[in-house]
Inverse folding.
C-alpha cells in the first residue's frame, strides 16, 4: 500500500540533540512498514521548532536591530530542512542496518493557500514553547502575540492556520515515490504561499500538518493516512469516568462525536477532521490515528482508531 505518515512536531523533542535521539527510535517503526513492502511518505509537524527559530531571530533582533526580521515562511523553510536532515539520516541508518537499499531525501515543500482564508482573522495554530499563564501574559504585553491554553499543558502562542489547497511540488514528490525513494515532505504543513500570476509569495502562517498530510495523501492517491499522536487510540469523554477508546469509526459516528465536542480544538480535533477528510475523498481510503510504536499493528487492524467511509 501507499502510506502517508504524519509525525507530530511536539513528538520530535525540544532541542536538536533531543530530536536526533528521538528520530533514531522513530525510524525503526517507519522502516518496519517499508520492510513489509509498503511505499511510505513522511510528513511532519514543526510547531515547537518553527517557534524556536522565529523566537531566536526576534531575540537577536532585539539585541541588534541590524538583523532583519525573519518572516514565518522563511522560518518554516528552515525548520523543514533542519528536521528533514535529522529524519533522513536516521532513516538511512536504519535502512542500512536492515540491508535495504533505498534513497532518502527531503523536499522543502510549498503549499498553496487562499490569502483571503478566514483563518487569517482568527489565529488558532499553537507554535513554540509552553508557558505559564503569567509568562504568557507578560510576553503578550511586550509583543502583542496571542496566547491560548493548549490542552492542559500550558499556554502557547497562536498564529493563523489557513487550509491547504494544493501541494506545489506534488509532481516531483510523486516521481520520487514511483522510483521507490523515501520522501520527507510538507514539513510543518508546508510553506504557505499564494499565487500572483506566475509568482508564489510566502505568507505569515503555519498550516496544520494533519490537514497538509491529508491533502498530500489525496493528491498522491494514497491508500492509508496514518496520523501519529501520543496515544494508541482516540477517545470520547477523554479523562472522564465514562471514557471510551475508539477502534473502528464510521464517518457518521465521527461527525456525531465532533458535533458533541469530544475532541480538543488544539489537540485531537484537527487530527480527526484531517483523517475524516481523507477517508471521504475516495472509496476504500482509510485513515488511522495511533501512536508511532503501534503504527505497524494499526495497519493490520490490531489497534489504533481506523476511520473509513463505509
Amino acid at each position: 500500500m501507499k502510506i502517508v505518515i504524519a509525525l507530530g512536531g511536539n513528538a520530535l523533542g525540544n532541542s536538536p540533540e533531543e530530536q536526533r535521539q528521538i528520530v533514531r527510535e522513530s525510524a525503526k517503526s517507519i522502516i518496519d512498514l517499508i520492510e513489509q513492502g509498503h511505499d511510505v511518505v513522511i510528513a511532519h509537524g514543526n510547531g515547537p521548532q518553527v517557534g524556536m527559530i522565529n523566537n531566536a531571530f526576534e531575540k537577536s533582533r532585539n539585541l541588534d536591530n541590524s538583523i532583519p526580521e525573519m518572516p514565518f515562511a522563511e522560518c518554516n523553510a528552515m525548520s523543514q530542512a533542519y528536521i528533514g536532515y535529522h529524519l533522513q539520516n536516521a532513516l538511512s541508518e536504519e535502512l542500512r542496518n536492515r540491508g535495504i537499499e533505498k534513497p532518502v531525501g527531503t523536499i522543502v515543500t510549498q503549499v498553496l493557500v487562499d490569502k483571503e482564508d478566514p483563518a487569517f482573522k482568527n489565529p488558532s495554530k499553537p507554535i513554540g514553547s509552553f508557558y505559564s499563564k503569567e509568562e504568557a501574559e507578560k510576553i503578550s504585553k511586550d509583543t502583542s502575540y496571542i496566547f491560548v491554553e493548549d490542552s492542559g499543558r500550558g499556554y502557547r502562542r497562536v498564529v493563523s492556520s489557513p487550509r491547504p489547497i494544493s501541494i506545489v511540488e506534488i509532481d516531483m514528490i510523486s516521481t520520487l515515490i514511483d522510483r521507490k525513494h523515501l520522501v520527507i515532505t510538507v514539513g510543518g504543513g508546508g510553506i504557505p504561499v499564494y499565487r500572483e500570476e506566475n509568482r508564489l509569495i510566502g505568507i505569515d502562517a503555519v498550516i496544520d500538518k494533519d490537514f497538509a498530510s491529508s491533502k498530500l495523501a489525496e493528491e498522491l492517491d494514497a491508500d492509508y493516512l496514518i496520523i501519529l499522536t501520543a496515544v494508541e487510540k482516540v477517545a470520547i469523554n477523554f479523562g472522564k469516568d465514562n471514557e471510551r477508546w475508539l477502534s473502528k469509526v464510521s464517518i457518521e459516528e465521527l461527525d456525531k462525536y465532533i458535533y458533541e465536542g469530544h475532541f480538543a480544538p488544539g489537540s485531537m480535533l484537527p487530527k480527526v477532521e484531517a483523517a475524516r477528510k481523507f477517508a471521504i475523498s475516495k472509496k476504500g481510503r482509510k485513515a488511522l490515528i495511533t501512536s508511532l510504536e503501534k503504527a505497524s499493528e494499526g495497519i493490520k487492524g490490531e489497534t489504533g482508531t481506523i476511520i473509513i467511509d463505509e
User: Anything to note?
Assistant: The radius of gyration is 19 Å. The CA atoms of residues 80 and 187 lie 5 Å apart. The longest strand covers residues 125-131. Residues 72-97 form the longest helix (26 residues).
